[in-house]
Amino acid sequence: MESVCALSATPVEVFDPVADYAALMESLFDFDAIRANVAAGFTMAFDAMHAVTGPYATEILERRLGFAPGTVRNGIPLEDFGHHHPDPNLVYARDLYDLLMGPDAPDFGAASDGDGDRNLIIGRGRFVTPSDSLAMLAANAHLAKAYAGGLKGVARSMPTSAAVDRVADALGIPGFETPTGWKFFGNLLDAGKATICGEESAGTGADHIREKDGLWAVLLWLNILAVRKISVNALAHEHWARFGRNYYARHDYEGVDKAKADALIAELGAALPTLPGRAVGPLTVATADDFTYADPVDGSVSPHQGIRILFEGGSRVVFRLSGTGTEGATLRVYLERYEPTGGDLDRETPDMLGDLIAAADAIAGIARHTGRTAPDVVT
Questions:
Q1: 172 lies in the same domain as 63
Q2: Mean pLDDT on 250-277
Q3: Quick one: 261 and 237 in the same domain?
Q4: Per-residue pLDDT tens digits for 132-175
Q5: Which of 80, 147, 218, 222 is the most exposed place for a label (fewest CB within 10 A)?
Q6: Is residue 7 part of a domain?
Q7: Rounded mean pLDDT, 77-96
Q8: Domain containing 196: what range?
């Protein structure tokens, strides 16, 4: 509903952004298919985390798509987010995770963050990492009416797992690897080079806007599940059977003395030319570099975006520093093991990353430089 009022001599038009956004989403997705799936008994839980997506999710999920009242939890935006941290991860959305892993789990669970741009996806008994979510959405996006003609391309941030690269290869479309930061995706979206983009920190979006969009990702998942008539767990297993699985985790070492963190990165950077061919336990380094991105749209060059160690067989470790100041620096270590089709595709992630964790410490000297024997945060 729109209205016009006056502020001094200036006319002010007031409009309902929820209605406009809901109409946009209905133009992108097959709401009829989702409604039919809900009518057939499909259930979900959405945690708005007392943040901005609450009214949007209530309007779309409960009023337009027919999910039961109460499907949207913590749906009233609050200035203090209800004394919680509105980050849709397995720490701050633990109640949702426990629900989806429990005996009375709904079919699907999702959450979005404080400003509505990131998302968490969990199926009954199956957590989907942001990297896998990006890949699975790209592989099935043609089932939504907005993307029925196919994708122009896909893009991921460099630290995000390469799972979506394998989808791009199979679809015969471009796949872009960019530095962290949505501005790099924005150039690709504006230029029509990419349709869907995503990052390991749970931001996913498409060319309907020049930004990540948490609720858009949830609705694309609902559209895919409704058309496929499949569970999240079954879709994940099918995806891994076709493309292989990228086991993935991020280890954060927080509050590291900045001088020590800088020394680690400098020493590692100096050693890059000597690493190819080096055996580290059962792994052998294939290539190693300090990632530089040349933007295909504006020609800008962004050097020193993270150190990549790629192993034979498709696994890798990435090292980046984030944050400075009185609390020191955060060393982020991204660990990714590729398991091809026919391999161990349904193991616990920590069990599959042991060799990479040991290799990361052996190559970079994490314990030697920082004095840390374990990360502070694992995501």
A1: yes
A2: 97
A3: no
A4: 999 999 999 999 999 999 999 999 999 999 999 999 999 999 99
A5: 80
A6: no
A7: 94
A8: 12-243
Same domain, residue pair 61 and 131: yes
Closest CA to 366 of 249, 247, 283, 267: 267
Spatial CA neighbour of 73 closest among 85, 91, 97, 57: 57
Question: What is the domain count for the chain?
Answer: 2
208 and 280, same domain (yes or no): no
Asked, for residue 2, whether it belongs to a domain, the answer is: no
Contact of 127 with 90, CB cutoff 8 Å: yes
For residue 309, is pLDDT > 70?
yes
Interacting residues of 184 by C-beta distance below 8 A, sequence separation 6+ = 155, 157, 178, 293, 295, 302
**Mean pLDDT, rounded, for 351-364:** 97
Over 50: is that where the pLDDT of 286 sits?
A: yes
C-alpha to C-alpha distances, 27 to 57, 147, 151, 216, 244, nearest whole angstrom = 16, 11, 17, 12, 33
225, 243, 261 - which closes a domain: 243
* pLDDT greater at residue 16 or residue 61: 61
Instruction: Please give the mean pLDDT across all residues of the chain.
Output: 95
Residues 104 and 28 in one domain: yes
Token pair belonging to 195: 């349709």
Please check whether residue 198 is in contact with residue 156, taking contact to mean a CB–CB distance below 8 angstroms: yes
